[in-house]
Amino acid sequence: MNILLATSEAVPFAKTGGLADVSGALPIELARLGHQVAVIMPAYRQTQFCGQKIERLGLDFIVPIGSKMVSGHLSRSIMPGSKVPVYLVHQDQYFDRDQLYGSDGKDYIDNCERFVFFSLAVLEAIRLLDLPVDVLHANDWQTGLVPAYLKIVHAGNPRYQKIASVFGVHNMAYQGQFWHWDMLLTGLDWKYFNWHQMEFHGKLNLLKTGLVFADSIVTVSPRYAQEIQASPLGCGLEGVLQYRREVLSGILNGIDETDWNPAKDRHLPAKFDATTVSLGKAACKAALQKELGLPQVAGAPLVSAVGRLDDQKGFDLIAEVIQRWVQTSDVQWVILGTGQPKYHKLFEGLAQRFPDKIAARLEFSNPLAHRIEAGSDIFLMPSRFEPCGLNQMYSLKYGTLPIVRETGGLADTIVGYGSPLAKSAPANGFSFQECSPLALSETLRRACDLFRLNSEQWKKLVDTGMRQDWSWGRSAKKYVDLYLKALTRAGMTKPDNPVHEGAMKVTPPLAV
Ligand code: ADP
Q: Contact 241/216 with Cβ under 8 angstroms?
């Protein structure tokens, strides 16, 4: 199959979040399975420092953005350690900026224009590069227009009409909503600006556009695919997702095991696997306590959290539990993260008041994130919602038991000890349902009791998690199945079976 992944970010070229991890890892795995895969993304200022060679192609193009014509050009690189080509779309006025989507906490005011341009450039690049494409996998609001352009503008064009579009949603909370006049930038007829298609409460909504026009929709865990069909996690688009439920599925992200593997991790003071975890983790824990200025007590549970300091991640619950526990228990706490200023202040204050119990590192540090995963006993993820989540899978791999709220990808990866699910699958952590400090506190109490009183059972949970397969290889096979279904749905047979080629049937978008 020929697959083109259109994304606004991909490791190592540019990253703000999980989308970059998916876009960096999935194409390589698909290529390993024998498919022809290419990636296309904008060339940002940070892209030039990615460490990969970038070659100019001398391919210039010009596209209409509203009433003006905007030019760009293409360059080419490859995904590290693979032959997967990465096509970079250059337009310096749009992409040569400090950040990807905004600065000083504010979105760039021309974000709609920037990604209208990028979406048009994706389709131009297919023509200019003469790229064979069976499946065009677009991602998030930044490329929500790509399925619409395929269905509306290129429906009768032989070069594009056989392409099936898949739209990946990584977080429903980010929708790319713009004032209605930005519809003019898209070049699409106003008739599509209606509540069944591109309009949402009077605004242009690019995420909705992708959801409406794609042949298939995929999100990053099966549970999240269910949850977003209802309020509140559908973020207002639950009706569209219910309407399109037949084409909506969820595939868990994988973890990059070349980077996240405690047996080979260059950031760790001691390496370990499932057979040497006891000794290895003890060494990592002692070193982490030392690094963070915490007393080196082996028997005190070391409880950590790493991530964006955001309400989504439940850091308010964590702060509340720490305050309840800190004076009455010997538990040690580690927080690594950046985000909302209120959490910076809160955790900084707590760490200052209780330096023997709490270490707060309010920064972004990948090496420290690795050492925290390896040195902790328990990892907290009490998220309000979590499309997939990666840290709980890293924790499992590093022999650290996660405590999660049963939502999204957390519910799909963690079987809570003592939960009803644990009757049919081996437990690998702890979980709770209610989004409250009390529920988190009670679950933590159970975990700490098990840690202290039943080391055999604890080791069993650790061993189960460490031996599970969370690799991208597993998820990539599911993506292949999804792409094949999308092709069939778009009115075609598999590309290796030419019998029905040309029998393209354009699925009409929702009726106006
Ligand atoms: P999301 O994409 O919603 O932020 P995920 O759990 O899917 O959450 O992925 C976040 C990734 O970013 C993880 O790899 C996590 O370890 C990493 N990360 C987040 N904050 C930090 C930080 N302050 N330092 C190091 N790594 C971080």
A: no
